[in-house]
Amino acid sequence: MLVSAVLALSVAGPPTDGLTVLVTGATGGTGRLLYSYLKADSRIKAVRALVYGSGSGSPEAHQHAAEALNCSACDSTEGIFYGDVSVPASLTTAFEGIDSVAITVGAPPGSNTSQQKSIEFIGVENQAKALVANGAAGKHVTLCSSMATTNPKPLPFMGGPILETQCRGVPWRVGHSVRHHQAVRHRRAVRSWRQAAAGRP
User: Fold this and answer.
1) Region class of 95: left (phi > 0), else alpha (psi between -120 and 50), else beta
2) Contact 49, 23 (CB under 8 A)
3) Distance of CA 162 to the CA centre of its chain
4) Which helix (H) or strand (E) covers residue 123, if one does?
5) Phi and psi dihedrals of 56, rounded to 5?
């Protein structure tokens, strides 16, 4: 289903067999599955992975990538990049020249509200901006979110504040040329978050 969502975005855009797709959060449970499926799909030209880290990646990050993504060098020669979605400057290289980004990044259990916001909300915004840094025409965003994100106040056993933050971190159109597919949109939550950030009631 996730692969279909990514491929569906190519409608009225570039030919599917010409797409270069970046999977962010690629070593997570959802990310590694999507990365694997896209790599095996002959309709995709190239698949990249963004792994949490910095620069060219630490030895630990390389080992983690090797275990999750079955890479050898686990570097840019294999389409493996390292970055932090809360740090825009770390995304530039991975996003350069891509047509589509599949966002599977998520805040880890135990993270505080500030960390959740920087990953699930601001991080989504940073990725959308990185995607269109050199133009929005033909670019696509797929957000792989979680179940129950339509509930603006999920109970702890449902995921609590992480899900509340996810429902606010929905990709939006950047200009009029970015097409997006989203599992869930919760407009009221997004609007209230932006109003709060701007100091408006």
Assistant:
1) alpha
2) yes
3) 16
4) helix 122-131
5) -90, 5
Give the start-to-end residue ranges of the domains of the chain. Answer: 2-197
Q: Give per-residue burial for 46-73: e unless 16+ CB within 10 Å, then b.
A: ebbbbbbbeeebeeebbebbeebbebee
Q: What is the pTM of this model?
A: 0.73
- Residues 149 and 167: beta-carbon distance below 8 Å: yes
How many other CB atoms are found less than 10 A from the CB of residue 195?
Answer: 11
What is the pLDDT at residue 101?
93
Reading the block at residue 101, the tokens are 């980004």
What torsion do the CA atoms of 7, 13, 17, 22 make, to the nearest 10 degrees? -60
**Per-residue pLDDT tens digits for 127-141:** 999 999 888 888 888
Class of domain 2-197: alpha beta
Residues in a beta bridge with 54 = none
> Hey, what are 118's tokens?
């920087």
